[in-house]
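Example record used in the benchmark description.
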Amino acid sequence: MIPIEEIYSDPRIVENLNACINCGVCTALCPAADYYDYEPRYIERVVLSHDPVALEELMSSDYIWYCGQCMSCKARCPRKNAPGVVVSALRYWSQKTGLFAKSKMGRNQVLIKQSIGQNIYDLGYCVHPSKLTKEAHPEQGPVWEWIFNNREKAYSLVNANIDKEGAGPMRKISDDAVNEIHSILKGTGALDLWETIENSVKETSINNKK
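Model output (structure tokens):
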């Protein structure tokens, strides 16, 4: 059973879910609607229905992962709704309850955690050149392969201070700063959420093999 009271008391939902008049402006300008069978106003309707079954189905589906979080909906809604912010809240609760692992797009969250999340934790960077290997990112092509194999030379051409002490782009993040990042991730509950994401995907994988 999903924690209905907690979900509906989430400030992102309380502050961004006013009476939807079903005008369709959010869907008309939504970039994701050009690529998927997706309507931001459908998110509003489901959440406003207060139907726990429909809400759980939504949080277990790919639907909440179609949104690109551009927030075009927030700028144009005549009722000042923000379906994108509501989606952000639903994604959080989907992760926290493990429902995200029931959808293909939801399970991609573990890859984001293992790449971007781990980079932030280990190095203080979302993306770092040392992690963009040819094997992991073949789409980068031969130019990137040369850059990867000649990182110090390549980055010196653009005055980057890669992996070195001092100022400049791609500099080594100090131990104090990295420790502070660790404290923030722990204090905000991010580490616990990451563990939940990992465990939920593992559990789903085990159950699917039975």
